[in-house]
């Protein structure tokens, strides 16, 4: 009897192990196009997407479940594992201009060309082709080697740019500054920082998520260098075998300008992540904060009233090539339909709705983020006067416009992360001077060119 | 003879069914045994062996985790990590140096604190259990939540700076906080790792101390040996095997673990707290879905080789103590 029980227990153990192993199977399948799943890496988008999904369900009867996976490494791992187990959702929100192309080139995304080529004029002009496979992209992105030129792996969803400075109006007023007047030049910006840090040494400085080291390079230095040098000399900094690189007199001048920020960073800034820096600003621990157009939504969600914020682009230095810097919007995130979706038609319908003026309007109002869809005259009503005001910096003469989406002059294997650490050592850490930093950056750029 | 044969046949005929029953029972017992170990074997084959073979193969390829095929590159990933890639190799060397510093400092720091603590604890009888529980708290609480708590404590306006200023040691306070300052970031993480590893080491030492025959200590005391001499010449030699185990466990844990570095500094500021485990993780999951899983895997195998080397040293040292 005991033997039988033992035998039964063993059989149960084997059955249990087999059933556990069997748990990894497909869990959901299409149900006639009535239910979709969408993944995003932005938690700030979830509520607004759910509002848009509710409106979409009323119109189409299709239910959309929104799921967020953060931070970025978790989202990456989620996509990688889901791709292996064929458990990808129907729709993905991905970083534009890189991540979407890699995932698409890997065969995970459907070509949206047929569904959206005729609808791209609904988007802001600079963002329209962000998800398109071009010959240049095919040559530089390994995963696209087997892709067809002209394929569209994503349509733009959110747009904006980096290099937007947010100032706390109350702190400006306390420091004796005009809270309605943004600094017009780099020098005025430094003076304003001096005034606010004098008024409040601990909480009057500048915050930025320098733990993600490339933010200093991408969100402050590039705009500053572009405005000082002009487009041609700025692009030469990154040139192949250039003699006009970061260690050249022009390059050193731009690094010196950046280093002038050193006394004004808030204490401990190099240990702050992007969100932490924004939260520090929202909590009044800094007078200025650098981010992108997307930052305002996060600040608002963390209790900062948009009307208490003065926003302006990184001001150009006096004597530089550009005196009125403009910032071209670029697609920040895009929407993609997965190639494994059992509901491809419904998924495409959802993406269509979400990027239509109606869907984008609901999203913009709910998230305070700037959609890539041109909202036209209703922009201010939907996204508020503060964010709508930022759009004025989007248009201007081409030679005065810094375009973060223009990657053609950089090495094919360009990795912005590697530009961040040398600049961090220059400021705020002060471990290297401009000359050393310039030499290091030139070495990094050369290695990137040599990598291909 | 024939009778004998007949009787043996008869005996066999009697015994045979018993033997068949016994062998059937033995077979059944073996089957039960195999069935019980089957889940563990299946788990090892799927989660262990398969993963090992998979990652070893991946270390010779470029892959992003989702493309249909791997791009075989031979030994390039290893070459890039060790010397060939002018961007990656210096970073890996810097991370290896930081890893080495942390390994040595954590292991020896743990011994330096745990041994006196265990000796003191062994010398008292009242409150020993309570104090042992208190000293063990860091071990049971150490984890992600505690690392976040440490971050707040170490901020520019955190408790450590406030306490230093309050007791007149403001010159030791770090205006940038302890984690944002390149001079203190790595040392601070080492201190926290020591804080987390002392409890187990202390318990091991305590067990070792309680296993020492009190008569030996008493005899030494009667011969005039003071507390320090007793510790140095009697207790310490008897505790060397435990010390070797603690040091080698500390070396291995610090070499392979990277959670604290990921959560508290992510390698910053400017790479001052980069370690090998963290670099492998960053190569795998922080490259915007670039095909860097192979490099991450190769780095994992290099770390494994170093761990294997440590294990060999460990075995030799322990054998030498016998």
UniProtKB/TrEMBL annotation, chain A:
Transmembrane segments: none
Pfam families: SBP_bac_1
Alphabetical list of InterPro entries matching this protein: Bact_solute-bd_prot1, SBP
Alphabetic keyword roster: Cell membrane, Lipoprotein, Membrane, Palmitate, Signal, Sugar transport, Transport
Gene3D superfamilies: Periplasmic binding protein-like II (3.40.190.10)
SUPFAM superfamilies: Periplasmic binding protein-like II
Organism encoding this protein: Asanoa hainanensis
Protein name according to UniProt: Multiple sugar transport system substrate-binding protein
Range of residues in the leader sequence: 1-22
Keyword Ligase attributed: no
Coiled coil regions, renumbered to chain: none
From TrEMBL, chain B:
ABC transmembrane type-1 domain segment(s): 96-314
One Pfam family named in its UniProt record: BPD_transp_1
PANTHER family recorded: ABC TRANSPORTER PERMEASE PROTEIN, DIACETYLCHITOBIOSE UPTAKE SYSTEM PERMEASE PROTEIN NGCF
GO cellular component terms attached to this protein's record: plasma membrane
UniProt protein name: Multiple sugar transport system permease protein/raffinose/stachyose/melibiose transport system permease protein
Keyword Transport appears in the UniProt entry: yes
Annotated membrane topology: Multi-pass membrane protein
Gene3D superfamilies: MetI-like
Transmembrane residue ranges: 31-53, 100-121, 133-150, 185-207, 234-251, 298-318
Subcellular location: Cell membrane
Species the sequence originates in: Asanoa hainanensis
Record has Membrane as a keyword: yes
Superkingdom to which the source organism belongs: Bacteria
Family the entry assigns: Belongs to the binding-protein-dependent transport system permease family.
Major site of localization recorded for this protein: membrane
GO biological process, one term: transmembrane transport
Keywords on record: Cell membrane, Membrane, Sugar transport, Transmembrane, Transmembrane helix, Transport
Xref: SUPFAM superfamilies: MetI-like (SSF161098)
